Amino acid sequence: MPSEELVTHAVILAGGRGTRFWPRSRTRTPKQLLNIVGKETMLEQTVARLRPLIPAERIWTVTNAGQAAAVRKQVPAATRKRVLIEPKGLNTAVAIGLAAIHARHVAHGDALLAVLPADHYIAQPEEYRKIVAAALDVALARGLLVVLGIPPTRPETGFGYIERMGEPITAKGLPVFAVKRFTEKPALPFAVEYVASGKYHWNAGMFFWRISTFLENLKSFLPKTHAALEDLAKLIGTRSYGTKLRAMYQKLQNISVDYAVLEPATRTAGPPRVFVIPAEVGWSDIGSWAAVYDLLAKKTGENVLAGKGHALDAEGNFLWAPSKFVAAIGIRDLVVVETPDALLVCPRDRAQDVAQIVKHLEQQKLTKLL
Question: Which helix (H) or strand (E) holds 129?
């Protein structure tokens, strides 16, 4: 690896809605701002995992206007100055680009960038930091884009997959593989095949690269977005910045960084430009209440109860009702979540469908429940 040194900035993407966690997750207090697992919120856990590697003043959080105040309350004082507010959500390519030009402005030049979701769970933070340090070491080489890949434990159809190729190189004693291709949410037969091959990893949305490398790739594959961001960069710190930002967001493409940069980069001729580091760190995207149950249940069939209550002849239930005593009799594998104004009851294996309830509330304009 090269001997050049660059400071590292982190970008935490914290603008999601977390609709599968209704009724706890709401527009202004979504999943990432809640203590879904543990006493700290998901955002607080994400920041805490980074702090031994990256100082608070170099941690950026990208969110929206409705959530910005809550975000600022949850991050360290030095990080509050680094909260970036998007006029509207345009997926990850633009959000990362916005953070990249701001980090470059503060760094007065190039820097390393670690891009991370705000709402994922990591059971082994020390091992995670070792892998992040290795990813940053690889990213220091010019022109390289690095992703973390989660070794799959089941044929999951709800995640994207990363296919690796060739023999690994090493960084800080860890294997690093060139990426052959990215595959989005495959059908079950393909997912079974991917897991059996041993060559695929889940894409957890954690990326590492130089700011210059990312912007160069953005220029190649999404030139209009790159040009708009560079124009905006000239106005950082001026009175014209806000007006330009709002106007820019009305015109830019809504696209993920995976589609915009990573996938085309793997198809570009020449030496590999995208690399993956396997990361066995006890990861979960905590995509639903069922996933929370899976994390908290210590044995099969256990009832997980948040609050006071008693279960009689009941198995495999997730009961979250801190303000009421819950009596569960003869029920199996249910999710029950109570808030002052709403109650969710569903089978655990239908927990993904909670987002459909949110769509119904939107259609009925029941905004007080959103």
Answer: helix 125-139
* Right CATH for 8-284 from 3.40.50.1820, 3.40.720.10, 2.120.10.30, 3.90.550.10: 3.90.550.10
DSSP conformation letters of 273-327: -EEEEE--S-EE---SHHHHHHHH-SSTT--EEESSEEEES-BS-EEE-TTS-EE
Query: Which of 239, 285, 248 lies closest to 97, judged by CA?
Result: 248
Rounded distance, CA 78 to CA 246, Å?
26
What pairs with residue 241 in β-bridges? none
Residue 1 has pLDDT above 70, yes or no: no
| C-alpha–C-alpha distance, residues 259 and 112, integer Å | 21
Pairing of strands 161-171, 200-210: antiparallel
8 A C-beta contact, residue 95 and residue 252: no
Check whether 24 has a pLDDT greater than 70. Answer: yes
- Token pair of 296 as six digits: 């908290």
Choose among 334, 311, 306: nearest CA to 322: 306
Mean pLDDT of 308-321: 94
Please identify which residue in the block is written with the tokens 């296919």: 163
| Domain definitions of the chain by residue range | 8-284, 298-369
Give one word for 313, left, alpha or beta, with left for phi > 0 and alpha for psi -120 to 50: left
Tell me 338's DSSP state.
E
CA-to-CA distance for 154 and 161, rounded, in angstroms?
A: 12
Tell me: pLDDT of 143 over 90.
no
Query: Residues 98, 103, 108, 114: what is their CA dihedral angle, to the nearest 10 degrees?
Result: -120
Q: How many CB atoms lie within 10 A of CB 323?
A: 9
Q: What is the pLDDT of residues 173-213, one digit of tens each?
A: 999 999 999 999 999 999 999 999 999 999 999 999 999 99
**Helix, strand, coil in percent for the chain, rounding step 5:** 40, 25, 35
State which amino acid sits at residue 275. F
Contact assessment for residue 71 and residue 83, using Cβ atoms and an 8 Å cutoff: yes
d(CA 195, CA 155): 6
